[in-house]
Design goal:
Layout: H1 6-19, H2 24-31, H3 35-42, H4 50-60, H5 64-69, H6 75-85, H7 89-107
Length: 108
């Protein structure tokens, strides 16, 4: 199994944080860690636990697959699932009905 490249992982975290116009301190405030610690993560000087990775990915709204590998495979589907899971039951029903209509229309 391939070892994690912490420098590349840190670069992807940094790029995503910048895309969201977040400072390191804003991310750290949600993680309850010091900014210097997070800076070392982004520079690849230290690795992180799976738990920390999951928390950071949630804050940055990005998939762990992308952060770990740099690959964006099925990111669209992943985003749709993430958004869908945040909907109320009523909203989920509405979305499901519309998808079903699009699907049925496509079969014609």
């Amino acid at each position: 199994m391939k070892k994690p490249n912490w420098k590349e992982i840190g670069e992807r975290l940094r790029e995503r944080r910048i895309q969201l116009n977040l400072t390191q301190q804003q991310v750290c405030d949600q993680l309850y860690i010091m900014q210097t610690h997070y800076s070392r993560i982004e520079t690849g000087k230290i690795g992180i636990s799976i738990e920390m990775l999951l928390k950071i990915c949630e804050i940055l709204d990005v998939s762990t697959d992308y952060i770990l590998t740099g690959k964006i495979s099925n990111q669209g589907e992943s985003l749709l699932i993430q958004y869908y899971n945040k909907l109320t039951e009523k909203q989920k029903h509405y979305v499901t009905q519309h998808i079903k209509l699009f699907y049925e229309e496509n079969l014609k």
